[in-house]
Amino acid sequence: MKKIVTLLLLAVAVWYGGIAAQGRIKLPAEYDEIATPEKLSKGEYLVRQGDKWGLWSSTYSKFYIPVMYHEIQVSGRYAGQKLYAVRLNDRWGLVSHSNEVYVPTTMRSIDYENEEQYTIVTGDGTVYSSGKETLSAYGIFKYLRAQAEHQPIFYIRFDNAKHVMVDAYDIASPFRNGLIGIRDRVTDKVRYLNTRGEWVPAPRTTAANLGVRAKYNKSHDFSQGLAAVQMPLNSNAPLKWGFIDKSGKMVIPAKFTNEPSDFSGGLALIHLTNDQYVFINKEGQVVTEEMDQATPFCNGYAFVSTDKGMYAIDSTLQIVNEEIPAKIFWFGCYDQVLDQQKNASRSTNIFSAQDSPASDPCLFDAQGHPYVIICEEHFSVCSISEDILHITYDPYGQDIDIFCDPTGQVLYLLERNKF
Length: 419
Prior knowledge:
Blueprint: E1 6-9, E2 12-15, E3 33-35, E4 44-49, E5 52-57, E6 62-69, E7 71-78, E8 81-88, E9 91-96, E10 101-107, E11 109-114, E12 117-121, E13 127-129, H1 137-148, E14 153-155, E15 162-166, E16 169-176, E17 179-184, E18 190-194, E19 199-200, H2 212-215, E20 218-219, E21 227-231, E22 240-244, E23 250-256, E24 268-271, E25 277-280, E26 293-294, E27 301-306, E28 309-314, E29 319-321, E30 330-334, E31 350-354, E32 362-365, E33 370-374, E34 381-385, E35 388-393, E36 400-404, E37 410-416
């Protein structure tokens, strides 16, 4: 049996193999050294075997971090999670208390000042420094992890982004013909912004300009020649949705209780009162079976969920992909995602999806290949319309709407005036 030697290190005991005198640390004798630097929590010990170290918990009698690194340092914290800088040979990385990799061990150096301030130098010498004026620590960790895993990255950049200030508002309609509708919550009037963040006159093809809004309780803009309208106006009768053409003629009777999608690919999505979904054609005919969940068509694709599973379909209702990775809460699409030199990175359609309102959105193609979105940690919602990605961002406890192009460059930020 190895001889147990007790030393004093930072006023804390250090043992070489075996069992501590208090009987609390029980490790096989093959471990060469056990140490407790002052930054470790009570009951945590660094354990060495040969030239490799791990992190042991005497409380739970298990390794938090396996004996696999040449050096382990308590780096700091992020979002309440303790992080450890770990070295493999001459490269550094960041892992959590449970050995979850935050930054792969390919970095030259990692410096920590506080939870929001990390400076990381990559293997090729590139410096990433988080802070209030740059990408957050969360964004940097996510970006470096995606790089190391060779995942396609969609990096949202705020360089010289324009700020548009407005009073209380809602998004009245997504981008159509280069314009987005912004509804004033007080006056209920809709104004329009173009892709440069400039206020412009309402387009002549909108339902509102054709007098629709004066006739119906609510209305959508026209899409593929039809606009969804809710009626009746100023009545106690139950409100129902239908579709009109540009002459104002009701071509699909107002019989739908829930708000329908706009027409795309000749089909509109209807949410039934039994919480099922169907698609209808322009004659109002139901053309699919009832589905547990579905998205509207975008660039010729929709995603549906039935008892057969989750899959993508084209506008002929044929299945094109049966391996969708997540239950889709909503989605939008790009014709293609561009790289920073504005070259198409992939020729297929690119979709955004989210499996619940609180989860991180994702980008992927119709074959299910995912993109990693790099943005601030507070972003929560994204959709795509006419190649404009829309994100809701909450850095100060107040939502900001962000619109960016297919390269990830932010076009402008829509912010509420502070009263």
